[in-house]
């Protein structure tokens, strides 16, 4: 698998994981752990964070900062849900 296909696979896996969370925001650590388990070979943390950043820049997801120190959380947008089926 070339790097373009792998990047697309990782982004799609992140969107599917966030869609499964429904309206709840998913903690960043949970997403990272899910990608370690779902994507083969497992991506490294910077690769996952780059994919999350790209998805947010493209308005497929939104991030929320936990004001109580719980870290970053993510939620899928309508555009992100539509991209899964595109």
Report on the architecture of this protein.
With 86 residues, the chain is an alpha+beta fold. It has a single domain, classed as Arc Repressor Mutant, subunit A, CATH 1.10.10. The chain is 57% helix and 14% strand. It is built from 4 helices and 3 strands. It has a 3-stranded antiparallel β-sheet. β2 and β3 (72-76) form a beta hairpin. α1 (3-20) packs across α2. The longest helix is centred in the N-terminal third of the chain and has 18 residues, at 3-20. The radius of gyration is 12 Å and the shape is globular. The model has no long low-confidence stretch (mean pLDDT 94).
What's this model, at a glance?
The chain has 86 residues and is an alpha+beta fold.
SSE map:
Blueprint: H1 3-20, E1 26-27, H2 28-38, H3 45-57, E2 61-65, E3 72-76, H4 78-84
Antiparallel strand pairs: 1-3, 2-3
CATH topology: Arc Repressor Mutant, subunit A
Helix proportion range: 55-70%
Helix tally equals 4
Query: Over the alpha carbons, how many angstroms does the gyration radius reach?
Result: 12 Å
Q: Tell me how many strands there are.
A: 3
Tell me the distance between the termini.
Answer: 21 Å
Mean pLDDT: 94
Task: Compute the number of structural domains.
Answer: 1
Broad CATH class: Mainly Alpha
Features:
single chain, 86 residues, alpha+beta, Arc Repressor Mutant, subunit A, 4 helices, 57% helix, 14% strand
């Amino acid at each position: 698998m070339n790097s373009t296909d792998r990047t697309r696979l990782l982004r799609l896996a992140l969107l599917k994981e966030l869609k499964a969370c429904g309206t709840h925001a998913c903690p960043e650590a949970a997403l990272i752990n899910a990608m370690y388990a779902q994507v083969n070979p497992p991506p490294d943390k910077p690769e996952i964070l780059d994919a999350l950043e790209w998805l947010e820049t493209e308005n497929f997801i939104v991030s929320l900062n936990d004001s109580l120190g719980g870290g970053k959380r993510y939620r899928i947008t309508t555009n992100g849900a539509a991209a899964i089926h595109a």
